[in-house]
Amino acid sequence: MKLAANARAVLLVNIGQLLTLRSPSANGGPRRGRELRELGIVEDAAVLYVGGKVVCVGQTKEALRDPWLKKNRKKVIEIDCEGQVVFPGFVDSHTHPAFINPRLVDFEKRTAGATYEEIAEAGGGIRSSVEPVRRARRNELAGKILAALEEMAEQGTTTVEAKSGYGLTPESELKSLEAIRGAASQWPGTVVPTLLGAHVVPQEFKDCSQKYVESVCKEMVPQAARRKLAWFVDVFCDRGAFTAGEARQIFEAAADNGLRVRAHVGQLSETPLGPLLALRPASLDHMDHISEEDIQNLAAHDTVATFVPGANYFLGLEKYPAARKFIDAGVPVALATDYNPGSSPTASMPFVLSLACTQMKMSPAESISAATINGAWALGLQDRKGSVEAGKDADLALFEAKDYREVAYWFASNRCVLAVLNGVLIASAGSGELG
Ligand code: NIG
Ligand code: FE
Questions:
Q1: Counting atoms of ligand 1 from 1, which one is nearest the CA of 286?
Q2: Averaged pLDDT, 118-133
Q3: Dist. CA 32–CA 304, nearest whole Å
Q4: Protein residue whose Cα sits closest to atom 1 of ligand 1
Q5: Which of 30, 210, 317, 356 has the fewest CB neighbours in a 10 Å radius?
Q6: 94 CB less than 6 Å from ligand 1?
Q7: Are 245 and 289 in contact (CB under 8 A)?
Q8: CB 130, CB 171: distance < 8 Å
Q9: What is the pLDDT of residues 68-111, one digit of tens each?
């Protein structure tokens, strides 16, 4: 191997447990059932990456014996991981960072017993985030998004799906997507932009939702596609938002414009999945309410079921998605933060892992596969993200832990010491000296 003049080579050594997640799944798709427990752990491991790509993965002893490395040792930056745990960076496959203000009034109303839907009906909820976004300049929004991305990286996240959805006019949805692009250009990780024009019907279309759906299909989707501002189109398909028929219309518009689809389903009520699954969404998210039949239906597809238990926690719900039923039926599952101002203001994937284990009875290993390799599948990025393998992007997270289970075990603290995003190192605030 020859080092290009501008390619930095970095070697992480003395990794106590390296979770490679590299074993292939039986059918070549996302992980299901028992496959979610296979973390491909290498002990006393080393990872070499050059110019943003992983070059080799193995044991520290072998890596140090490598003839190329021996010859080039001086050119290689070496980081001693001191026996700690390294993961593939988290893939947070569901976030809504394009907003201006936290929703503190809603938060306080909930402490007095109001529900998410009652608050929305009384003028709070998603619609109350719209005006500030419509008024905001693109750079102001981009600044908010960048701050969220930075906070995510501090906790080990290296890939983020980011939705628009608080503008609800063609102009402000496209402005939100431009802001996502602007923030992404200043962040070393990978950002996957999603158009969520169909988040809720805005006030001015209250009595003619079909007209709004037309605006999503005929204006927002084609413009976002033409300007390459979005990879995905999302729809909130639930009680009080959009019907399955409207979601299908929007999915068809996305497909006509070459964009892939995903949806919010079953958060407030049971959303029938059959009509949506026919259009092969990469992911269907939330899944608090689902029929047995639709769990079986999902198991027969490669669509990932993404759980966002931060929303259940923050809304104070007793019920969490029935993760065990999904996993035992063979549905590929992922975990994400759902970072947003109304139902899940958290940037922390480790906290989501904690919720998955304590509230949904996923094992620590299952939660990690769901937050890495299956998150990558949920974004169509499985060839680049979600596992530590030669040829994949250098996306890693180092935790102050001797055992990988600690990452889900300690909650409301940040054990991530260092993150590597496409080969760029970021030390977490408060992390000690390494190497
Ligand atoms: O995923 N369900 C729809 N969207 C978000 C909530 C957004 C908000 O309340 O601002 C969610 O929970
Ligand atoms: Fe969401």
A1: 1
A2: 95
A3: 10
A4: 338
A5: 210
A6: no
A7: no
A8: no
A9: 888 888 899 999 999 999 999 999 999 999 999 999 999 999 99
